[in-house]
Design a protein that fits this description.
It is a single chain. By secondary structure, the chain is an alpha/beta fold. It has helices at residues 33-43, 57-67, 84-89, 173-184, 196-205, 224-239, and strands at residues 2-6, 27-28, 31-32, 48-53, 72-77, 99-102, 106-109, 124-130, 138-142, 148-153, 162-170, 210-214, 217-220, 241-242, 247-249, 252-253, 257-259, 264-266, 269-270, 274-276, 281-283, 286-292, 297-299, 302-308, 313-315, 318-319, 322-323, 328-330.
Length: 333
């Protein structure tokens, strides 16, 4: 089984951070978003991955080569941002066995081992999560046997609350790319995009059966407020704590918090929902719902709902901040 991971988006909702750092490498729970997904793939035996890159693609390549040398990685540049169908089409030269297709805007709690026991009647699996704000998503309409009947993009009426989360297993890869070719031969959606879900609908219309499987958790990492929510979830579920190589002196820690190796925290009140990156120094500050990157300095600040990049300097600032790597912000104490 191989994996296809489209990564060519610019991450505009996370600017200014994504001017320097590609969205999949934004840290949450002390680790890049993409690392959680790659670890899941390796756990189920995937060793070959096609990365569809674009904006800041070299940073993605450098990260994979440094942190996941065991992967056989292929990189294809999506020159034209023509949607998810166009992105996956670029992986066709390597599509010669079962495929997992994953979009890395989210972290999910899903049983990927399901694919090892899937009955022969199924052409694939689409994972879904029941949501209340169904109008924001493509939703999946299922038959009584939990197979997909169709996908409806952003419905105005509650035809379904099963949101399509961007995680797919494809056994019939030949029919998938037949569907992608058919989709790309038609007119694009508004905005010039071609959707991968249209290729799935083509497959269903030509007799394929997709099992719709639930996920227990689905955590968005695509914008600042949801990144912080996901950070809290991770810290509360095994990713928090004070690393052995960190130093905390005279500071009140309010769980959940993460203080990484080499970090120094002196005085103030840290937490809840605060992650402090490696080598950062936090002195006499109050932080709540804050992610601090590596090697940063925060002195005499009172911050909430903030994202601070790596190697930043923040002094005497109160309120909310979103600053990219190598920034400096000062205010009145």
């Amino acid at each position: 089984m191989k994996a296809i991971i489209p990564l060519a988006g610019k991450g505009t909702r996370l600017r200014p951070h994504t001017h320097i750092t590609p969205k999949p490498l934004m840290k949450v729970g002390g680790r890049p978003v993409m690392s959680y997904i790659l670890d899941d793939l390796i756990e189920i035996g995937v060793r070959e991955v096609v990365f569809i890159v674009g904006y800041l693609g070299d940073a993605i390549r450098d990260f994979i080569e440094a942190e996941y040398p065991e992967l056989e990685a292929h990189y294809v540049v999506q020159e034209v941002q023509d949607g998810t169908a166009g992105a996956v089409k670029l992986a066709e030269p390597w599509a010669d066995e079962d495929l997992l297709i994953l979009f890395v805007d989210t972290i999910f709690d899903a049983d990927l081992s399901l694919v090892k026991y899937l009955g022969p009647a199924y052409a694939g699996v689409i994972w879904a999560k029941e949501v209340e704000d169904y109008q924001r998503f493509g939703v999946i309409i299922t038959r009584d046997d939990l197979t997909m009947e169709r996908i409806v993009e952003k419905p105005k009426t509650p035809v379904s609350k099963l949101a399509n989360i961007g995680l797919y297993y494809i056994r019939d890869f030949t029919l998938l790319f037949e569907g992608i070719h058919d989709t790309l031969s038609g007119a694009p959606a508004p905005g010039g995009e071609y959707f991968l879900t249209d290729a799935f609908q083509y497959m269903v219309d030509h007799g394929a059966q997709f099992l719709v499987a639930p996920v227990e958790g689905w955590y968005d990492c695509g914008k600042p407020e949801t990144l912080l929510e996901t950070n809290r979830h991770l810290l509360e579920n095994g990713h928090g704590g004070v690393a052995p190589g960190a130093s905390v002196e005279g500071a009140e820690l309010v769980d959940p918090v993460l203080i990484e190796d080499g970090a120094y925290v002196h005085g103030g009140r840290i937490g809840p929902n605060v992650a402090v990156g490696r080598g950062s120094r936090i002195t006499d500050s109050r932080l709540r719902d804050v992610i601090v990157g590596d090697g940063s300095t925060v002195d005499g600040a009172d911050l909430h709902d903030s994202l601070l990049g790596s190697q930043v300097l923040v002094r005497g600032v109160k309120g909310r901040l979103s600053v990219a790597d190598h920034s400096e912000v000062s205010g009145d104490n």
